[in-house]
TrEMBL record:
UniProt keyword annotation of ATP-binding present: no
Source species, domain of life: Eukaryota
Swiss-Prot/TrEMBL keywords: Developmental protein, Repeat
Family annotation (InterPro entries): Ankyrin_rpt, Ankyrin_rpt-contain_sf, PP1_Regulatory_Subunit
SUPFAM superfamilies, sorted: Ankyrin repeat
GO molecular function, one term: enzyme inhibitor activity
Gene3D superfamilies: Ankyrin repeat-containing domain
Listed name of the protein: Protein phosphatase 1 regulatory subunit 12A
Protein family: Belongs to the NRARP family.
Single GO cellular component term: cytoplasm
Keyword Repeat attributed: yes
Amino acid sequence: MSLETRSSSALFKRNEQLKRWEESETNKESGVIKNKERKVKFSSDCVFLAACGAGDKEEVQRLLQKGADINTTNVDGLTALHQV
């Protein structure tokens, strides 16, 4: 996967967001003993919309095979089709 493709990948962007959260002061100040499981999780609808918006065809196909709802909307009522 080329660097350009990788940086536009929805999956890559989500992982980068999670890394930034784990390193954030807010996360560090929680005072809770951390386990290996991540605190922040994206809903499957959010993941599907992000993949569509990023044009990540492979991720979209994988999510559709797992049962993603093509009629999922964001808070503004826009579907994945609107975003692409």
